[in-house]
Amino acid sequence: MCELELSSEEQAMLAGDFGPGIRQAMEIVFALGQIYGARRLVSVGSVQVAGVSYRNLGEAGLEFLHEWAAQGASVRVPTTLNPAGMDLQAWRELGFSESFARSQLAVIDAFRRQGVRTTCTCTPYLVGNVPGVGEHVAWAESSAVSYANSVLGARTNREGGPSALAAAITGRTAAYGLHLDENRRATLQVVVCCPMRELSDFGALGYLVGKVARNRVPYFVFRSGDLEEMCSHAALKALGAAMAASGAVALYHVAGVTPEADRLDVLVPDHETLVVDDLQPAYAALNSDVRQIDLVWFGCPHASLEEMAELVRLLNGRQVRSALWITTAREVREQAEAEGLVAAVETSGGRVVADMCTVVAPMRELGFRTLATTSAKGATYVPSHTGLQVRYGTVEQCVEAAVTGIW
Ligand code: F3S
Fold this sequence. Notes:
Strand 7 (186-192), helix 8 and strand 8 form a beta-alpha-beta unit. The model has no long low-confidence stretch (mean pLDDT 96). This protein is 42% helix and 15% strand. The protein is built from 16 helices and 15 strands. The protein binds FE3-S4 cluster.
């Protein structure tokens, strides 16, 4: 095992000179560094913490957070928080139980006591946590990690809940994996020959490539279409989220688009090549045959203002028959409210739901059995995590499903 060298401040943290909470955090960072053969720790510019839903944490997780907070450990770098299992304000109207809400709010409170910004979103980059190119960060949540590495050009491994919180408390992470130049090179070239017309096409592509890439770094070359028009932030967000879900891909490059793609040595010489000319296998794999739709879910990853405006345009004032939820960050919801988008969605009978992710919410207890989504990540996880049957398709298909209640 190679030596992991600590600065004098890091050694003092590990020795408990800054208190038991910081010592516990440094023990986690140090242990990970040793396991992964890191030579040093690096300072992080920001942290995104996951493991927020009470549905996943349970009493043991809540107790662990409370104990850590009670030791007086608080974050020393800007730290944002992943989605919870409910809208922290509108939970009652949405049908969440008092007991779930009480426990979920206790989790949020524990994070707040540690100085975490309780943003409750998987798109922290839409609410001010925007690391620069080359900046070391410690983010959890697979789609956010992918976006930070690939689209923003920051450097992070896929942190878990405790390791991200430990990085926030120490301001450090171990320099291994995607923090190092050599691990950011692509070993799989993906040549995309089919047209990419819909947002869901990017999710479908990500689903297929993730299955092949499995933890590797893919390098995309699109053979047709206007790159700038095609590779919108929403498209890249969908692509990365889908690959993260189907193949734990944490970094990808797109020729001519992402910040590190044009580095001369980005693609290793002995790379494998995958040609994608048909997305139908992904659509087939992500769809059940359910017809009746209880809930149409947009906002996985959490919706931006632009995505919401597009939905309002497509709804065009029509009433929905199924439930319609657009999940987003609370701060984005507030902006949407100011721009009249929330009122427009509500006029159609839909809801702009803040703070939460459907995948970690008790959806069956709310009475839902079927769901339609434009998100390949959502379609991958919803059946196994919530027990709901899923339809996956284009934004237009999902809007029509909301209006008719039928797929
Ligand atoms: Fe975000 Fe949940 Fe989707 S965390 S990416 S809304 S599965």
